[in-house]
């Protein structure tokens, strides 16, 4: 199995400070009163505005420090910062490859140096063969035979076979595949499942804003669960739908958790209605 560390399971780094404007303001105010004993701060005192300005500027500074710390951590870095971390591993971004896919490949690359045909090595090289590969599952049912399942998004069979050819060419390179292995590559298309729901808004809610928030939450949920063998929980769909401004949700389909096999993945297609009353 792959030994790459799952970054999402790492504990929060201690260097990242939880920030509170009110707490910073109180600290500055206390420091001022210690320097000027007996001074009473009234609501009309101009010093109040100076304290607010100082607290806000310190909040921005501390947030900048947090951001700088995150920029050198693989789990949090984005954009060019992530590219520089990838350079430390000798791994370049594949064209317009998104941050999350690139982030996944970087630690996986360590297994590519093995010539023993590890699962992690096959996963890394499959991801690297073509940027359209969304996820990979590798198993071996019998000695010497390696089955590689590459998850693709919805596309034509001809396009899928082109991706398969790229993967086969990469995995059968004499510097990558152990001489005793026979690699069998199969592409996997997602099983499309309609997500049909009725969302009822609270009185006075901004429909356009609520709808945008729901769609953003659903997009993130769908991408996080569009992986081979990854369960799509019914409760998670409801959570994504139930955003601020939503009074209640009726989830019509799916009616239960979606449980794929190890070489299967689900992708939800959206059909969201916003009835006026119920």
Automatic annotation (TrEMBL):
InterPro entries: Baseplate_assembly_J_pred (IPR014507), Baseplate_J_M (IPR058531), Phage_Baseplate_Hub (IPR052726). It comes from the Bacteria. Residues 115-185 form the Baseplate J-like central domain. PANTHER family: FELS-2 PROPHAGE PROTEIN. This is Baseplate J-like central domain-containing protein.
